[in-house]
Amino acid sequence: MPPQTDRTVPPTGGSPEPGVIATTFAVLRRHRGAVAGATARVVSLCGLVALLMTATIFALAWPVFTHMRNQRTWYRHVEDPYLHDHTDLGLVALWTLPLFLVLLGTGSAALQTVCSRAVAAGTHVHPQGEESRVDPARIRPVLAVYALRGLIVWPLPLLTSVVADRLTGYQLDTPEPLERGTWPHTLVQASPAAAVAVAVLLRLALALAPAAAAAGLGPRAALRRSWSLTWTRSGFVRVLAVALPLAALTAGTVRLVTESALLLRPLVRAHLEQATGNFFAAYYAGILAPVFVGVLVAAAVTLPLTFTAFAALHDHLRSPRTPPVSA
User: Fold this and answer.
1) Among candidate residues 103, 99, 213, the one with its CA nearest the CA of residue 148
2) What is the distance between the alpha carbons of residues 311 and 273, in angstroms, rounded to a whole number?
3) Within 13 Å of residue 76, how many CA atoms lie on the same side as its CB?
4) Percentage of the chain modeled with pLDDT above 90
5) Of 219, 258, 275, 313, which residue has the fewest beta carbons closer than 10 angstroms?
6) Alpha helices in 78-135 (DSSP H)
7) DSSP 262
8) Is 79 left (phi over 0), alpha (psi -120 to 50) or beta?
């Protein structure tokens, strides 16, 4: 496979380089039409596909909802309280989660490509639609970066949590294999928190990889580029300074919009129960509706800013003399 290179920025004669925040907002202002148009198309399409996927999953899981309804009817008949078991629905959600992750990754990769093109164009306005055009060949390496980064970051905390639960969980009838109150028990019980801290550090160290992939590097080269740029004298501090406010903005937007959309919950429940006669299907659809709206609105508001900021930070941290890296 031939070496893959990304755009390099020549020195600019000693004039002070604008900061990441200034660059981000300048790019978004100059290319607002292209970025806004791409965001509207990607978020709308992903929202429609997610809605169709959710409806299909509900239809496939209908026997589970029917069983829950029948159990509720039986317990009412014998005048016993019914506490429904949602284990089967949890398994359905677990098995279908990869589909939604692929959808989220594809939409994010498309937006990352558009934002990186806008940053590459700088403050020069190109013909309408040039930056908003999404090249599938550029989406694939970004999507591969998301997959590789997930395999690097998340197995450790998940595996640690499972092992700690096996050794210290409340399902154990005896104090074995680790006796409660001992140092080994305390260390194992605290190990998931330590694993999450390591995962967060890894995630921060690889935060620039999608921007590097969108700039032209292969997936592995993009991960190496992000790692090398982050673990420098000022790299980690700057990545953290960008990541923390954006994470807070995203979480706050999701929470605010979800809380504002809670009025949808009784409406969805009432209409769906009236249409299907199944309380439990309507109940879970009502739970998902505000979350669905919150995620879509947060994606439309925060993802263009986030992807543009990390693309700008990638350009700022990269040396003009950085050699091409092969994938």
Assistant:
1) 213
2) 46
3) 7
4) 54
5) 275
6) 87-121
7) G
8) left
> Distance between CA 133 and CA 35 in Å, rounded?
10
Best CA proximity match to 258, nearest among 295, 302, 304: 295
Burial class (CB in 10 A: 0-12, 13-18, 19+), 94: exposed
Q: What span, in angstroms and rounded, lies between the C-alpha atoms of 20 and 26?
A: 10
Joined tokens for residue 326: 């092969």
What are the residues whose beta carbons fall under 8 Å from the beta carbon of 106, sequence distance 6 or more? 46, 139, 143
> CA triplet 212, 215, 217: central angle to 5 degrees?
65
**For residue 309, what are the contacts with CB-CB under 8 A and spacing of at least 6?**
20, 21, 24, 242, 246
Asked if residues 107 and 42 have their Cβ atoms less than 8 Å apart, the reply is yes
Side-chain half-sphere exposure of 98, counting CA atoms within 13 A: 5
Residues 119-148 have pLDDT tens digits of 988 754 554 455 556 667 778 999 999 999
pLDDT tens-digit profile of 99-119?
999 999 999 999 999 999 999
Q: What are 89's two structure tokens?
A: 């629905």
Select from 91, 312, 190 the least CA-distant residue to 198. Answer: 190
Residue whose C-alpha is closest to residue 126's, from 31, 17, 1: 31
Tokens representing 58 are 């509900």
Q: Collapse the DSSP code of 4 into the 3-class scheme (helix H, G, I; strand E, B; otherwise coil) and give the result.
A: strand
pLDDT tens, 6-23? Answer: 444 444 333 335 688 888
In the chain, the amino acid numbered 77 is: H
| Amino acid letter for position 130 | E
User: CB neighbours of 289 closer than 8 A, spacing ≥ 6?
Assistant: 261, 264, 265, 268
